[in-house]
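Title: Prediction job returns without error message
Component: structure pipeline
Severity: low
Priority: P3
Assignee: unassigned

Description:
Job completed but the reporter wants confirmation the result is attached to the right record. Sequence as submitted:
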Amino acid sequence: MKKLIECVPNFSEGKDMGVIDQITGEIEAVEGVKLLDVDPGQATNRTVVTFVGSPDEVVEAAFRAVKRASELIDMRKHKGAHPRMGATDVCPLVPVANISMEEVVDYARRLAKRIGDELGISVYCYEKAALKPERRNLANCRKGEYEAMADKIKQPEWKPDFGPDSLNERCGVTAVGARDFLVAYNINLNTTSTRRANAVAFDVREKGRVKRKGHPLTGKIVKDEKGETVYIPGTLKEVKAIGWFIEEYGVAQISMNLTNISVTPVHVAFDEVCDKAAKRGIRVTGSELVGLVPLNAMLDAGKYFLKKQQRSLGVSEDELIKIAVKSMGLDELKAFDPKEKIIEYMIAGDEEKKLVDMSVSGFADETASESPAPGGGSVSAYVGALGVSLGTMVANLSSHKRGWDERWEEFSKWAEKGQAIKKELLYLVDEDTRAFNRIMAAFGMPKKSDKDKLIRNQAIQDATKYAIEIPFRIMQKALESMDVMEAMVEKGIPASVTDAGVGALCARTAVIGAFMNVKVNAQGLEDKAFFKKIYLEGQDIEAAARQKEEEIIRLVENAIQVK
């Protein structure tokens, strides 16, 4: 699946929209990047920009933006309320989907090196990208701000990680980091009292509340041996929170920053506030997400609340999101539109039209047209997706069968497996067509010179291999899906045994059809060893699918014998 990272650079200009537009224009010019938000501040004289995309493209866009900012912003003339040390003050990278923090750290350090080497700007790496422990905290790196940087970076302990150790007076110093995704999240209460909202906030936030001797509100504040205030920690890690009153809605809220949703997810924060509020006689009425959220945060929330109901987790993305929205009351104050609130869906809005997004009749019409794609590979993947969907349906029906309540989790696991295979096969519907288009594009490359011919031939060979690998993956996933159908014929709700049987027939068709495409796409492939390996494994998969289909259909026929 596509890797996504977010970048949230802060530029030291918040008043001149002409300058800001030129900087963000550099970001928008990079294909594969989506500009999500531009938030200028007059008093801070600072603009926070948010954009997202695939890692290489995001790093390229970030570099171009930093470069443009270095040309347009003169730190010698800058004044603002927010601490700052450079034209591009900070530039954090954040993992969003299908990418590890370790990978993001590597991208951040590469970006930092490029800024230092090519732009002559001193760079500190901070947070997860820090090369020295004391530089993890951004405040340490920025201490003294721009005015102190000329002397600071000459000190051995504050030598920049990349770039010169003498100040670029125009640009200042930039901090490049890697950090966890931050979710701004507000929880609505049935009270107008800021004090009571704060009490709940102090119960849950990691920092907690001030420790006092005697009365918890008016007692003397406890200090440690260094004279620092002692705090009683709250219950949620990686959470900052305060209570406030929102005039617009006429209610108090718990305003939270969830700084690491892998430690404290949104749904855990919601439930904990519900618990602590109830103990104080306050009821949570709903909540709101400020800004964007990764898809997995919503899917995890949906599964969490379904599990509490002892219902199957193997449902569609749309259903999981609906459950999450209703469970946390995310639509109480305003409508919650997943296409505008979930990062991956916002990006998908800019992508090419997909076959799987067509109506059933539209897909059939497109297949029946004179266009050579979608062809047998895409149809095989789609047939496989329909087959495993039937198996998943039986699993979901079985998990909800009256009298089988204690077995809900068993069937939920089968349904989840089916949903995962369905998602992969639907992806392969379009990917098979993209693979065909890659071959066509390779054949259309120039062949005037000997060098052109070599490049063209290599492109054809690479595209051909990919066009073999895609239907082979369809074969693998379709065979794997037959485990779901077999289990449902043997263990699932008896009334739906034929549905699982039809699912098995579809899966076998997907395997055989995809294997035909593996073989036909190999024509002209020069790497015979590669194809031989694929071919032999494909024969085994086809034989296994035929055998499993026979076994499943025999079980179905035995179950539905007409007496």
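Comment from assignee: result matches the submitted record. The CA atoms of residues 179 and 205 lie 19 Å apart.
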